[in-house]
Amino acid sequence: MKPKWLNAIKSFVVTVVILAVAMFAVGQSHDAAVMKPSPKQPLRVETDTTGTTYDTLTVTTTDTSIIYPLQLKAPWPLLKLESTSNVGSSLRFVKNGTATGFLGISDTDALAIGGAESGDLSLRVENKNIRFSANAGTTTQVVLKNSGTLQANERVVIGQIQYPEIVKLHVSGSAIFGGEGSGTDGTRRLTIGAASGGYGAIGYNFLPSSTAGDTYSYLGADKASQLIFYEGGFRFRVAPAPTGWNGVDTPAPTIGFSDAITILPTGNVGIGMTPTAKLEVAGDIKASGTIYAKFQDVAEWVPATEEIAAGTVVVIAANNHVAPSTDAYDTRVAGVVSPKPGLVLGEPGDSKALVATTGRVKVRVDASNGPIREGDLLVSSSIKGTAMKSEPLVLNGRRFHQPGTVIGKALEPLDKGTGEILVLLSMQ
Question: For residue 110, how far is the Cα from the chain centroid?
């Protein structure tokens, strides 16, 4: 067993060596350095600020083989920075004599990391918030808040800042979010971002693309859908699941979207197509409720021998055409040309007329054959395209109208001359 006095001498020698090394390191900067070793602070250097420099401990080496010129190792916090003024304290980083950045505490007691220049971006952890600032930390550009609201000069920006401060969230690029499925964030399939061609897009299971020609790839082996903001309107598109792809192997298959619904800036709505009318459907329509129409007749597009005005009584002509009537009680009567039918059948054409056969429509009539009263049956007259009151035949005291000649029943009266009245069409 070694005597206690030998251990005491060893402790004294170690203390003298540590004190000598520290005094040598700081002696060139300040004469007032004091060392206070203790069990929890083996090396502590204090100094005043009377000198021309604030360096208190400098470790310098030119030996490139030394990887760590200064190493600290302890079971407690290794480094404590404490400022005795209100300007904060920090570690300053210098490369080849040029300042590059800092890490420390700001004058507002915030943990700060930043560049050396006054305009460099800095990060501050302050009051449970994270702030990214410019101009030496005086202007907050991005803030991640734990509570409270964004201030007038605060916003969240991911990417390049392009818009004024009123835009509180700005993402320069596209984003993909988690969705359904197992795991903490689910399957990442919801996409928000730019669509090919410059239109914004929101959708499921598609990868954003900058390739011209409207080209997208699947994210996974599932169906895909996409809503693009198409030329001031909207276009909803769908695609089936890719065939023979496991959702992992690369490259991912290209999506062949098909238009499901298109809404143009004019308000036109197309289902399965780009619309040219307020509503246009490519395919069948099935309704479980009532279909309402403002106008009260049903008409169809029929080839005509000439351009025919609305309200004209027409008869069947050669080659599946219609022509204005010219004979009284004509059994070839086919209907009346309608200006705005409630329901239209067939396809339009320059040489076609809309001929109504059912419903209520305005008809050109002549009262020369007698005044027309509500409920009178109407037939064609000898005046081109004009109807008149039907005169019945009396047989055995009963009144009969000629079969196949009746156009409909008058809903309005006409005492004399010619005019247009509303007629309930009932071809007989």
Answer: 38
Q: In order of start, what are the domains of the chain with their CATH numbers? A: 1-68 (no CATH), 91-172 (no CATH), 182-281 (no CATH), 297-426 (2.40.300.10)
Give yes or no for a contact between 226 and 206, defined as CB atoms under 8 angstroms apart.
Answer: yes
Strand, coil or helix: what is 274?
A: coil
Inter-residue contact 37 to 44 (CB < 8 Å): yes
Q: What is the pTM of this model?
A: 0.58
Q: Are 185 and 178 in contact (CB under 8 A)?
A: yes
SS3 309: coil
b/e code 35-59 from CB counts within 10 Å (16+ = b): beeeeeeeeeeebeeeeeeeebeee
DSSP string, 232-266: TSEEEEEEPPPTT--SSSSSPPBP--EEEEEE-TT
Report whether 388 contacts 375 (CB < 8 A): no
State the amino acid at position 318 in one-letter form. Answer: A
Per-residue model confidence as pLDDT tens digits over 204-247: 988 877 665 567 888 888 899 999 887 889 999 999 999 999 88
CA pair distance 79, 90, nearest whole angstrom: 12
Distance CA 340, CA 408 (A): 18
